[in-house]
Amino acid sequence: MLHILLTEISVSSIRSQVSLFLTTFQATTMVAFNDNFPCIPVVDLSQNSASSLIVEACESFGFFQVKNHDISTDIITTLEAKAFAFFELPQSAKEKDVPRPFCYNTNSIGRRGDTGCLEYLLTSVSNSDNIHSNDFLTLANIYISPIRKMACQILELMADGLKLEPRNVLSRLLSDDKSDSRFRINYYPPCAGMELGFGEHTDPQIISVLRSNAASGLQILKDGIWIPVPPDPSSFYINVDDCLQVMTNGRFKSVKHKVILSENWKQRLSMIYFGGPPLSAKIAPISSLMKDEEESPYKEFTWSEFTTSVANTRLDFDRLSPFLKSPN
């Protein structure tokens, strides 16, 4: 049964107390600021109700927190420490000693002029061996492997909740040897005079799996309200991405999110696995989710076509709009 924890904070005092509140976290199924503030669902993967709760969360939020996973704390903390050690190097050293095959960048988020106060490492994720070999990559692969497995588990629980057959109709896109997935480590240093760490956007893939340290900043959009997400380093956060919205014919909603810096900002480090399909995969609603004579608002497209379109738009653009049968 879903339990709810409500922390009573008056609306007038939210701004002054949000930084303090977000540095704490609770191992409960819901977290909220007050009775009128939307709650963030938390799914316990060890419970039999996980599949139905995941579907409910994806329909209402497009976002949920996962606890009781099987990811080793040692793996998480070791990679986090290694990442912090890299980002705290002098700038010249970071630019010179990027751990391949990662690419390193700072401030610039996309190709269309979007900026933020962050540095990041980014690499593609292959299900086959990588030609590069270094300590950082080895640690990253040790982390990524169980994360991908958990992502597939969650997609199969989604399929169970939606009564889809076969059960791996979604997860096989991530487990495919040609899966076009990404792994990214975002580092948000203290930035004087900056408020925006990472601007509002949706993720284009199928699902994203995020884990951060205890620094706050992440917000998700729900019914026109930006909801701060209390950090929990022991948990993971799951985003419904654009492709999953299409595959469920809009039943699941791709969640818009951003990172906001506060006056009492501490260094935030987040690690995100973006689970993507093969470039040639066709993205369209799953037929068994369509009601009789129901029409899809989306044109069928390949993942390759979608990534090309995404690369040519700004961060906050509605990336699915060019693929609507009747564009707005």
Number of helices: 8
Quaternary state reads: single chain
Helix content: 25-40%
DSSP strand count: 16
Q: Which series of helices and strands comes N to C?
A: EHEEHEHHEEHHEEEEEEHEEEEH
Give the class from helix and strand content and strand pairing.
Answer: alpha+beta
- Ends apart, CA distance between termini: 41 Å
What summary fits the major beta sheet? 10 strands, mixed
Tell the overall outline: globular
What is the mean predicted local confidence, pLDDT?
86
Strand proportion, as a percent range, falls in 25-35%
Radius of gyration: 19 Å
Strand order of the largest sheet: 1-2-3-4-12-9-14-7-6-5
Low-confidence stretches: 1-35
Structure notes:
GO terms for molecular function: metal ion binding; oxidoreductase activity, acting on paired donors, with incorporation or reduction of molecular oxygen. This is Gibberellin 2-beta-dioxygenase. The strands form 3 sheets. The protein has a 10-stranded mixed β-sheet. It has a 4-stranded antiparallel β-sheet with strand order 8-13-10-11, with no helix packed on it. The chain contains 8 helices and 16 strands. By secondary structure, the protein is of the alpha+beta class. The longest helix has 28 residues. Helix content is about 25%, strand content about 25%. Helix 2 packs across helix 5.
